[in-house]
Every structure is written in C-alpha cells, then in structure tokens.
Write a structure and sequence with these properties.
The protein has 99 residues and is an all-alpha fold. The protein contains seven helices and no strands.
Length: 99
C-alpha cells in the first residue's frame, strides 16, 4: 500500500491525474460533481487507493470539502462500474433459458 501511495503522490505532482481529468470535463456538465473532483474520478479508473489518496490530498489542501469528496467518490464508482455492464449483461441474459 505504501508504494502505491508514493506513486500516487508522484503522479499527482507531475499532473498526470489533472490531465486525465481534463478528458472528463465534457462529462462534468452531466454529473453533479465539481470540476476539481474530476481527477479523482480519473484516478478511480486506475485504482481505488489512488482515488482515495488523491481525494484526501484535495481535502487537505482545502480544494474540496468532505461532502464534495463523498459525492465525487460515489459518482466515480458509478461511472467506473458502467464498463463492467458489457461483461455481466450478456452473461446473465445468456444463462437464463426461456421456457
């Protein structure tokens, strides 16, 4: 866990998550999340631990407050789980045989 946290801090300092967050800006008008929270959603695609570390860093700096962090993480979990639907839907539809 410690190496991942160190890696996340290094990537945050390099601005990697901010650049990923810029790709999500068109989506931000449809989601009830602040623009500052978009790098957290981008980090959720990589790792939950990375997103938690990044959101704690944003909260410590005063960029996001506690409620905004919770909303960003909840919406981010929904957005990142949409990709798994393409795997699970055919599985469950194909396993139930009509009578």
């Amino acid at each position: 866990m410690v190496p991942v946290t160190i890696l996340v801090f290094a990537l945050t300092d390099l601005g990697v998550f901010d650049s990923f967050g810029s790709y999500l800006k068109p989506i931000s008008e449809y989601l009830p999340v602040p623009v500052e929270g978009l790098p957290v959603i981008a980090a959720l695609f990589a790792s939950h631990l990375a997103a938690y570390t990044l959101s704690a860093n944003l909260m410590e700096q005063g960029i996001l407050n506690g409620i905004e962090v919770i909303i960003v993480l909840l919406i981010g979990n929904i957005v990142t789980s949409l990709g798994t639907l393409r795997i699970y839907i055919p599985h469950y539809v194909g396993s139930s045989v009509p009578k």
